[in-house]
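Students often ask why we bother encoding 3D structure as a string. The short answer is that it lets us treat folding as translation between two languages. Here is a chain of 252 residues written in the first language.
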Amino acid sequence: MLGKTTKTVAALVGIAALLLLGVALMPARAIKLATDRVDGLALHTAEGRLFSGEADLAYRGENLGRVTWSLRPGALLDFQLGTDWRIAHPDYTASGTAAVGARTTEFAATGIIDALAVNRFLSQYHISLDGMFEVAGLRVRHDSGGVAAEGRLRWSGGRAVYRLSGETHDVLLPAMVGTLANVAGQPGLEVMTADGSMPLLNIRLDAEGWAHIGVTARLTSLAGNPWRDGNNEDAVVVTVSERLFEPSGPDV
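And here it is in the second language, the structure alphabet:
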């Protein structure tokens, strides 16, 4: 009986090894089977193999950079598909890990981002910044309990140009540090001056996809628009909310 069981286990291990080898030998372009499921996401000029390759990544026609990846077989022991990745673009470089399981998705990253890349997003709000951004220890996990996040974001500070009430403002802002953490079960970003002494703004993302941005009186002063009743400069005096995404409902 023991011999029969041993042979069965050996056969299963052999089949798994063959399947793993088959996946390892698949060309890198096979990853398009996954990316094609994301609307607007595209891979071009893929090279290498599925287990280790590289390609140009684009979203809705905009070049995101050259991405390289290497799958981590050890993640399969945790019933996850995991990979180490790196992306390079003239305006930023970043690297990290990602893992997808039956009920969880995890993502980690560190990187350096030029303000030019950030300004492409901020331009819709008539804001332009100078300087560099640094992302450190970013970790995001999504499971049945919701989204958990942690990490730090640092901006070197510098010139900021923005429009408000039809007027253009040009100011110099200090270096800032943002700390990402879960607050009351929701991801939140607290931004302070680089020395950690002065709160400037906070951002909270709720379960319905709304980002709520609170601006302190101190930041309005630094931006050249002192709050008229700014007795407490640490107080949030302006709150802006914008929906970033709509939560997906259950399949029917």
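Translate back mentally: The chain is about 15% helix and 55% strand. Keep this in mind for the problem set.
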